[in-house]
Specification:
The protein has 273 residues and is α+β, with helices and mostly antiparallel strands. Helix content is 23%, strand content 28%. The chain has five helices and 16 strands. It has a four-stranded mixed sheet, covered by helices on one side. A three-stranded mixed sheet has the order 2-5-3, with helices on one face. It has a three-stranded mixed sheet with strand order 13-16-14, covered by helices on one side. β8 and β9 form a beta hairpin. The relative contact order is 0.10. The C terminus is likely disordered.
Length: 273
């Protein structure tokens, strides 16, 4: 061949070289198209909501590569290790061998710190619960001046303090103020009762113990007796004082059980220090 080229005129050799280069170029482009499967596209299937294993199997069987993009998210409405999100999204047309990135719901709920909802309005408390990934289990109303304000936060039947570690997705019950009702009671007489006895009586009337003052010889409120309260049961004119659900009664506790003076018409006869 080379002998043939050398015996021909120069322009013939040039033309033959150009033709040879074009043939090699066409051969290269054809093989490149076969290798890359140029122009061939596939529709990405929907794998959101599937388990990771099923999603991986589905994608790989259709010629896609699979990679986990994020596995730190948690949704309590979805089972563990399910596909939360995929990229590219379903029904997009992409080239074969394209990598599909998956976001996986973590296997276990993370721990978070319980927020402080006390004194918030119900609406704000509900928003905070959602921001922290907590559920509102129930609302309980209690007579109090602060209507629809959070008085307590309950988890599994007990008050949960702010900052306590709790699993995301846990359910919280909120105790809300219902406002002061129109029904009033005569102020109950707590004279001579223990703290627990007084608390039981007030709870039955939707009343609350306010401040507690202990005498020096009283180590614990459960060991003493009430000898003074405010408001008292009767006024100076002998007429009964009234109190509404949700209001407070302050008490004073002494070590010895007091004795009521025969001439006393109030619940504060000074039986103590």
């Amino acid at each position: 061949m080379f002998k043939f080229l050398t015996t021909k005129p120069l322009w013939v050799n040039i033309v033959a070289g150009i033709v040879l280069l074009l043939l090699l170029l066409l051969l290269f482009l054809g093989s490149l198209s076969l290798l890359t499967q140029h122009g061939k596209t596939l529709k990405i299937p929907t794998v959101t909501g599937m388990s990771y294993g099923d999603a991986k199997k589905t994608l790989e069987s259709q010629g896609f590569d699979v990679q986990i993009q994020d596995s730190s998210v948690y949704y309590d409405t979805m089972p563990p290790l399910r596909v939360v999100k995929q990229f590219p999204e379903a029904d997009n047309l992409v080239k074969v061998n394209r990598t599909v990135y998956l976001t996986i719901n973590r296997a276990q709920a993370p721990f978070i710190q319980m927020p402080n909802l006390v004194s918030m309005s119900f609406r704000n408390a509900d928003l905070i619960l959602k921001q922290y990934g907590l559920r509102l289990e129930d609302t309980v109303f209690k007579p109090d001046f602060a209507k629809n304000s959070v008085l307590d936060q309950i988890y599994k039947g007990e008050t949960i303090k702010p900052g306590t570690q709790i699993l995301q997705g846990s359910s919280i019950t909120l105790v809300l103020g219902s406002g002061i009702g129109g029904i009033g009671y005569i102020v109950p007489d707590l004279f001579g009762l223990t703290y627990q006895q007084a608390r039981s009586r007030l709870d039955s009337m939707s009343l609350t113990i306010g401040s507690v003052a202990k005498d020096n010889d009283v180590r614990d409120t459960t060991e003493g007796f009430i000898y003074k309260q405010t408001p008292v049961q009767f006024g100076e004119d002998g007429r009964p004082n009234r109190i509404h659900p949700g209001q407070y009664i302050d008490i004073w506790i002494g070590a010895q059980k007091p004795e009521r003076r025969p001439d006393s018409t109030s619940t504060t006869p000074g039986g103590g220090n």
